[in-house]
Design a protein that fits this description.
Blueprint lengths: L4 H13 L6 H13 L5 H25 L1 H8 L7 H14 L1 H7 L10 H6 L4 H26 L5 H4 L1 H25 L3
Helix pairs in contact: 1-2, 1-3, 2-8, 3-4, 3-8, 5-6, 6-8, 8-10
């Protein structure tokens, strides 16, 4: 990313969100470090990383929509997208629908894989995009911000991933509760 800038970050984040195992903690943590070195700019980094996350999620959604489970079983082992991860995401999606998309976007290990079962289940694309954007924002913001604050110690993000997980789950849970409250309040 230091050599190719935002373009490299975009493709790395898009690949991560399209189920290629590149940890976002590394990508965004290093991007945050580059912010601390005045190579990247915070808001530009944040916007591009969010756009890349949504772009990669759309690719995964389309793979699920057009390839489905046979595609997963045939090629999933090459990208660490195994039957267990798919089954976990599928169960959450079946039980919670759109809320699964929103909440899973903030859960390490599952966050990138929820898009595929959403495509398989033919979840409405417009709703999928909205929930993906909402779920991508806190994760991206937190990791970019933490990387920029940590500076040369940005690798600590990997070590303290569980703290970010707890914070993000709380943020997503509050967002989900507010969403449901407003939705139910609007009904007669």
């Amino acid at each position: 990313m230091e050599s190719y800038g935002y373009v490299a970050m975009f493709f790395a984040m898009a690949a991560e969100n399209a189920n290629i195992p590149i940890p976002s903690e590394v990508i965004l943590g290093f991007a945050g470090f580059l912010i601390s070195q005045h190579i990247f700019e915070f808001w530009t980094t944040f916007v591009i990383a969010c756009a890349a996350g949504v772009f990669g999620s759309v690719i995964s959604y389309w793979l699920g929509l057009y390839g489905g489970r046979p595609l997963l079983l045939k090629y999933g082992k090459y990208i660490l997208f195994n039957e267990k991860k798919f089954t976990t995401a599928e169960k959450m999606f079946t039980k919670y629908g759109g809320m699964a998309v929103l909440l899973c976007r903030c859960l390490p290990g599952v966050r990138t894989f929820i898009s595929f079962p959403a495509g398989v289940a033919r979840y409405p694309f417009g709703k999928f995009i909205v929930l993906t954007v909402i779920g991508t924002i806190p994760w991206t913001f937190l990791l970019v911000w933490a990387g920029s604050v940590l500076g040369s110690h940005w690798q600590d993000l990997i070590q303290y991933n569980h703290i970010f997980f707890i914070v993000l789950v709380l943020i997503c849970a509050l967002t989900g509760i507010l969403f449901l409250y407003k939705r139910r309040k609007g009904r007669p």
